[in-house]
Amino acid sequence: MLDPISTTDAGSASGTGPSQDQQTAVDKALTLLMSLAEEDREVGVSELARRTRLTKSTAFRLLGILQRNAVVERVGSSYRLGPQLFDIGRRAYGPTPLMLQERLLPFLTELYVLTHETVHLAVLHRTDVMYVNKLHGHRRARTPTRIGSRLPASCTAVGKALLAFDHDAAELAIAQGLPAPTEHSVTDPAEFRAELDRVRREGIAYEREEILPGVTCVAVPVMGAAGRPVAAISVSGALHRFEPARVAPELRRVAFEAARELGAAARPRGRRRPASAEPAAA
Predict the structure, then answer these.
(1) What's the pLDDT band for 263 if we cut at 50, 70, 90?
(2) How crowded is residue 19: how many other Cβ atoms within 10 Å of its Cβ?
(3) Does residue 184 lie within any of the structural domains?
(4) What angle do CA 260, 111, 136 make, to 5 degrees?
(5) Fewer Cβ neighbours under 10 Å: the N or C end of the chain?
(6) How many whole angstroms separate alpha carbon 242 and alpha carbon 240?
């Protein structure tokens, strides 16, 4: 069980918030939310009041307001975070990896059926890519990936497709030093920036033996709101037989349809927005 928040640190577990005497109603409500977020279970009013150093009557009153706004849910005599809070987080930070895995599986499956090669779905995590889903091809190529694993973004096609639209992450990767898993990996900052410029212009990224000898890959970003990608989809295969350029048109189409599906899922019901034009092939 967590220790109660001290009087001087009542606004924040890190001690950066206002003192208890300085707390506004908003401060107190946020303190309750942060306390709920620390538990993967429902929490009773008495326990929340003890943790946050609020009176039980104040905690009950604020929880009632939060409940009316669907920010918390009441389960019997206890409370948990509500759906509105998750919706706010989704709108602020985009789809979660689990949601992407579920919603985009049909599009990965379509690519797999079309190509019979290995198909990946990945998201950016600082300067790495995390693989959210993977479908093994019939002509299975040796790849260093598995669901949940991470690789340096600069050495992968999915990573380049994402870094090209995230300047801060790209510059951080360069500042940390571009890794070289193979002799073909791009380690020169100027060359790497030029490649990301090309990816931004053309909307497609390639990788040829940069993460593993004998493997090549092509990737396209799945665009979200404000022209920023939320994920990238790739097709990879053995260098001696797989030609990435041949699957590029279908990959572009599938990624565009996946982005449209995510956009439709994010909009409130009853509101429709005209579909934007599909990006032209390079």
Answers:
(1) confident
(2) 13
(3) yes
(4) 130
(5) N
(6) 6
Partners of 130 in the β-ladder: 123, 150
- Nearest Cα residue to 263 out of 237, 219, 212, 229: 229
Q: What is the mean pLDDT of residues 209-218?
A: 95
Rounded CA-CA distance 24/20 in Å is 9
Domain boundary among 74, 90, 106: 90
Q: Each residue of 157-190: pLDDT tens digit?
A: 999 999 999 999 999 999 999 999 999 999 999 9
Residue 30 lies in a domain: yes
**Using one digit for the tens of pLDDT, what is the confidence trace for 243-253?**
999 999 999 99
Together in a domain, 146 and 162: yes
Phi, psi values for residue 107, rounded to 5° = -75, -35
Residue 281 has pLDDT above 50, yes or no: no
Whose tokens are 């600069």? That residue is 154
CA distances from 134 to 12, 40, 45, 150, 261 (A): 40, 29, 44, 13, 19
Q: Are residues 185 and 245 in the same domain?
A: yes
In a domain, 79, yes or no: yes
Residue 258 lies in a domain: yes
- State yes or no: pLDDT of 90 exceeds 70: no
Q: Is the dihedral of CA 186, 187, 191, 194 positive or negative?
A: positive
pLDDT score recorded for residue 1: 36
**Residue 149 in this model has a pLDDT that exceeds 80:** yes
What is the distance between the alpha carbons of residues 162 and 210, in angstroms, rounded to a whole number? Answer: 16
Tell me the CATH number at 46. 1.10.10.10
Residue 109 sits in the same domain as residue 198: yes
Q: Which two tokens stand for residue 131?
A: 């693989």
Single-letter amino acid code for the residue at 268: P
